[in-house]
Amino acid sequence: MFDSLFPYTAAEEVTFFVDLILPIPVPKLFTYRVPRDMAGLLKIGARVIVPFGKSRVMTAIVARMHNHPPAKYQARYVLELLDEYPLVTSYQLELFNWMAEYYMCCVGEVMNVALPSGLKITSQSKVQYNPDFDYPELLTKEEWDLLKELQKHPALSYEELGRLVGEVHVPAMIKSLVGKRAVIVFEEVREKYVPKMVRKIRLHANYENREQLLMLINRLEKLPKQQEVVMRYLRYVPVQINPATNQKGLDKTVLNQDDELSQSSLQTLIKNEVFETFEVIQPRFSDTGITPQVEIRLTDAQQGAINKVTTLFQERDVVLFHGITGSGKTEIYIRLIQQALEGGSQVLYLLPEIALTTQIVVRLQKVFGDKMGIYHSKFSDNERVEVWKGIISGQYQFVIGVRSAVFLPFDNLGLIIVDEEHETSYKQHDPAPRYHARDVAIMLAHWQKAKVLLGSATPSVESYYHAQQKRYGLVELFQRYGQATLPNIRLVNVRQERKQKTMKNEFSSALLQELEMNLDRKEQSILFQNRRGYSPYLQCEDCDWTSECPNCAVSLTYHMRAAELRCHYCGHKEEVPRLCPVCGSTKVKTVGFGTEKIEDQLQILFPQARIQRMDLDTTRTKNAYQQIIKEFEEGQVDILVGTQMITKGLDFDNVSLVGIFDADRLIHYPEFRATERAFQMITQVSGRAGRRADRQGKVLIQTSNPEQAILQKVLENDYFGLYQEEVTERQNFNYPPFSRIIKLTIRHQEQVISRQAANKLAADLAEKLGSNRVLGPEEPLVERIRNQFLYDILIKLERDKINIKAVKAFIQECITTILTDKGLRAVSVVIDVDPL
Ligand code: ADP
Ligand code: ZN
Ligand code: ZN
To answer: Which of 102, 279, 642, 705 could, after both became Cys, cross-link 614 (CB 3.0–4.6 A)?
Structure first.
């Protein structure tokens, strides 16, 4: 008699199972049973909803289908199938697996980062009978009645149940039924993503050519209202647009704008198949109505570069394009993108976060219109889901995006461009996978037989090395577009100026003079100080107290505008003390300087100047960044002060002066890539000057030590010289690209335990890998963050002749030993492969 309750009986000959990726940090797939009616519909790469734990549900991805029940546990049923087609392509699954293995994390962690949260779920508690339940004798009469009731519904919310059995009874009854395993409580899934559809109209496909259309218009001669509607339509949609391929259509409202009559005429025309209606997803961005711009004529040098790239692609999968700032790299990318699209393949164009927010998007939109998808973390979830689905549907063949765009469901890539390939923001730090989008792009292209173009004015040492080794092709362009030349760079010795007392606060007399001249000429200036806030800390002149974060081993930065002390690591905020909190002295002073202080001093030095500041603090809101750029572009700002945000990809005509503060701090950062970084940053920001043809730009670099080798390289714009020195260093000290590095960071809120765990882990690793390969443990630069004490262990491995898979497995094993050690409870280990 209970059989009717259970749709899945032992009589079933074949039971299907699926192995699923769940978005959690557990290093395995999970096996679930497939309800019979779902079995034929499932596809690898589709999303399903499954129960997890006692009351959770999760979105999972089908990775495998088979008929082997799991050995150790009773598989639970898949609750729901979300996709009829794979939402995740086979390439993506391959990518997920590769990333999990390469970056030493779980495939579920990759999935979690890859899918925009709109493709995951929100939920509501629901109750469903348990099809596996087979102890009906345990139930009371009421429970039994309820269970029968539940059988009629796929699932009920608590509210719906309440209506059935009375609200007060629900919690107790459910609790009892759950206890007896007769029902399952789970979170019901709501897909967050709801596309906004709009109804559009277009000419019926019958009217594919001009003749047919003319005949129609003639035919309508006697029906002037209908004819008028057709003519109106043609005013908006040119005759050349083939109605059969017209995805854009026209809003109905455009046609019956002012009269009721046209509305009924339109209805008749639709009925007579002159027009047809169709639905499209309303694009939330990109449909800006920008019309394609006039063709740009490439210079011979630019065309030469394109030809060389194309030729090299015949024998190399990756080409490094080293083109100086202002050489017109973007124009070259545009041509290559057009070529790839004409060849019928997809294109991905990666850009660092901040560079994507502005000018370049507008430039590309002028060329590609709404064929181009934009994938950016500042966009809403729905917008990102639309790009995802638009790629699957074929709406977007070309996407411009930030690093996470490597996760999009491409299946036919022909070209990936990684612009500003040296940018460190391509590396994800948290959470895992700690991937580098450039390196992932190269793998992605490899699987899809696509080509990769890495572009930069200051290539990373790694990429340039690969080019030197002929692993990558290399194309170089050392000429700015038009008559423009690279700016003239001067070093200003601030130590000397301080001695001669010609400095005014942080400004050298040399810089002041240039700024003044620029203001007189109504030309714009950019000032770069890579530190935000007013001053990095406060100090008491009497007792030497300094402002420090209670949670981290760093000083609290003084933010004058916000009247706060802030920790840039954990976000801790404090009021600014009027007196020294230790000795009560009034002599609390600011030490060092950030962008706020520069802005402030500038306003005093040049009261008439219009000054704007661009850093994390002034660009928190969605459009603030664009707004500042726009004002600067329109000439409403004379001097723009900013952090490295202003170094990236900006293209202004009227900037003729760039000032760089505190170059020494950039250079002497205790990190093996510091010189490379400093060179890149200084060169990039300098590259903002003098992009207009008629006057050479000027760059002034303030330093205490103008003799430093790196600054001489900057002066001579000697990228190759810098590269050679760097690569020699790297070789001597066995750093990448000559070795691979895996960094382990051990964390615990007690320093002793953290240190103990780190020591043990390092010893375990060294025992097998050899002590020459294991460095540390060492306290990192900031040894405590959010009350966790940190220790770093660096594992340096040869590039070749090493079984890297086996080594990674061994490292994982050692970490597991530490994590399961009872004496070292609550230690965590962060694994970072190829740290930056
Ligand atoms: P890069 O990215 O190499 O710094 P851009 O692509 O931004 O250089 O080009 C610099 C400026 O020169 C831009 O304003 C761009 O529109 C212009 N430009 C480059 N090539 C051409 C060309 N062939 N015709 C017209 N303008 C060009
Ligand atoms: Zn004091
Ligand atoms: Zn802090």
So the answer is: 642
**How far apart, in Å, are the Cα atoms of 137 and each of 173, 175, 176, 727?**
16, 17, 14, 77
Residue nearest to atom 19 of ligand 1 (CA): 328
Mean pLDDT, residues 419-441 taken together: 95
One domain for residues 438 and 520: no
Q: For residue 810, which phi and psi values (nearest 5 degrees)?
A: -65, -40
* DSSP assigned state of 688: T
pLDDT tens digit sequence for 284-324: 544 444 445 557 899 999 999 999 999 999 999 999 999 99
**Residue list, annotated binding site:** 540, 543, 549, 552, 567, 570, 580, 583
Check pocket membership of 659 for ligand 1, CB cut-off 6 A: no
Asked if 659 and 752 sit in the same domain, the reply is: no
pLDDT tens, residue by residue, 555-576: 999 999 999 999 999 999 999 9
Residue 112 lies in a domain: no
Coil, strand, or helix at residue 4? Answer: helix
- Where residue 26 falls (left for φ over 0; alpha for ψ -120 to 50; beta otherwise) is beta
Task: Report CA(632)–ligand 1 centroid distance (Å).
Answer: 19
- Give per-residue pLDDT as tens, 665-691: 999 888 889 999 999 999 999 988 888
What's the gap in Å between 572 CA and the centre of ligand 3?
5
Residue 707 burial class via C-beta count within 10 angstroms: exposed 0-12, middle 13-18, buried 19 and up: exposed
How close is the Cα of 787 to the center of ligand 3, in Å? 8
What is the distance in A from the centroid of ligand 3 to the CA of 568? 7
The number of the ligand nearest the C-alpha atom of 633 reads 1
* All residues with CB under 5 Å from ion ligand 3: 549, 551-552, 567, 569-570, 572
3-state secondary structure of 831: strand
Q: Are residues 558 and 619 in the same domain?
A: no
Whether 129 and 45 share a structural domain: no
Q: Does 329 contact ligand 1 (Cβ within 6 A)?
A: yes
358 and 448, same domain (yes or no)? yes
Atom of ligand 1 nearest to the CA of 323: 3
The pLDDT tens digits for 186-229 are 665 555 555 667 788 888 888 877 888 888 888 888 888 888 88
Domain range spanning residue 254?
197-281
> Residues 806, 761: contact at Cβ < 8 Å?
no
SS (H, E, C) 54-77: CCEEEEEEEEEEECCCCCCCCCCE
